[in-house]
Design a protein that fits this description.
202 residues, mainly alpha, three-stranded antiparallel sheet, 60% helix, disordered N terminus
């Protein structure tokens, strides 16, 4: 276990094997359950990836209230640590600001990397669903910022869903509909596209 501060106080070692198994096989609720159990055992002692994994679990489940309470109760974090970055991500999310860039620019530890990648995909899926529901016209820079993609891939995303580009305004218009309400693309389809485009970004 790395970055254990202070090492002498970590009387109860975090069961990283269990956490890795939860991440790989158990789903986000299992990750949260493992971390919450460890939090009770360690009585506020912060060791390495523990709080970061718990915070990511809450964010992946969309539970911003628990994420906010966790940020308030966890011990102070080194400014450039994984968990400190995740606190800034959580703060951005509950204030309605884009957070993908914060996640993408940081270099993550081995334990948290799969959780971070899953959160980026989730945030992109949610952003696409929100944009197609809320706007008839979206500027390209706004679209790119909320998807955390370069402009070219953000544009490809919009075109895939039938939005049309207006070079005069540098924006995309939602497809015209014959009914009163715009037909929404299912989140499962959005999630599939997000995964493909995330690979193209690399």
């Amino acid at each position: 276990l790395h970055d254990c501060l202070p090492a002498a106080r970590c009387a109860v070692p975090l069961k990283m094997t269990s956490l890795k198994d939860a991440i790989a096989f158990g789903g986000w609720k299992t990750v949260v359950e493992v971390c919450e159990s460890e939090e009770l055992n360690r009585n506020g002692v912060d060791c390495g990836d523990f709080y970061g994994a718990l915070l990511l679990g809450y964010l992946l489940l969309g539970d911003l209230n628990k994420a906010r309470f966790l940020c308030k109760r966890m011990p102070p974090q080194p400014p450039k640590s994984d968990t400190a970055v995740l606190i800034r991500v959580a703060q951005a999310l509950w204030s309605g600001q884009p957070a993908i860039e914060l996640l993408s620019l940081h270099t993550w530890g081995e334990i948290l990397t799969p959780l971070v990648k899953a959160l980026i995909d989730k945030l992109r899926t949610d952003a696409l669903a929100r944009l197609q529901q809320s706007f008839s016209v979206v500027r390209l820079d706004y679209l790119a910022a909320h998807l955390g993609f370069p402009a070219e891939i953000a544009a490809q995303t919009a075109i895939t869903y039938g939005w049309t580009f207006d070079s005069a305004t540098n924006s995309f218009a939602r497809p015209a509909t014959t009914g009163k309400q715009h037909q929404q693309v299912p989140k499962t389809e959005i999630r599939t596209l997000v995964g493909i485009l995330s690979q193209l970004e690399k």
